[in-house]
Design goal:
This protein has six helices and no strands. It has helices at 2-8, 16-24, 27-31, 41-48, 50-59, 73-83. Helix 2 (16-24) packs antiparallel against helix 4 (41-48). The longest helix has 11 residues, at 73-83.
C-alpha cells in the first residue's frame, strides 16, 4: 500500500526536525520506492544552523546583519559596544 502511495505522493518533511531526520536517512525510504523531497544534508545543515547560514552568506558576499554568539554577559556587552541595540536574540539551531 505505501509503495503505491509513494508513486503519487512524495514524502515532504514538515518541520526542521523532520527535514533533518529525513535528509540524514533519505536512502532508506528511497530504497523502498519513496520520493524524498528534501535537499542534500549539507544544505540542510547550513540552512538550519544560523551561524553556518551567516558564515555561508559572508563567504558568498551576501549582505548579512551583525551576528555574535552569546555565551555570557561579556559577549552581550561587546555586541552592544560594537553594534548597539536593538538586536534580535535567536538560538543558533532553533529545533534543538
Amino acid at each position: 500500500m505505501l509503495h503505491r502511495l509513494a508513486d503519487r505522493h512524495p514524502l515532504v518533511p514538515p518541520s526542521d526536525i523532520a527535514v533533518t531526520v529525513v535528509t540524514e536517512h533519505a536512502n532508506a525510504p528511497r530504497a523502498r520506492g519513496f520520493v524524498v523531497a528534501a535537499p542534500p544534508v549539507g544544505a540542510v545543515r547550513i540552512c538550519l544552523d544560523k551561524s553556518a547560514t551567516h558564515e555561508f552568506a559572508l563567504a558568498h558576499l551576501v549582505p548579512a546583519p551583525a551576528t555574535v554568539a552569546l555565551r555570557d554577559v561579556a559577549d552581550l556587552r561587546r555586541f552592544e559596544a560594537e553594534h548597539g541595540f536593538p538586536g534580535v536574540l535567536n538560538p543558533t539551531v532553533s529545533h534543538r
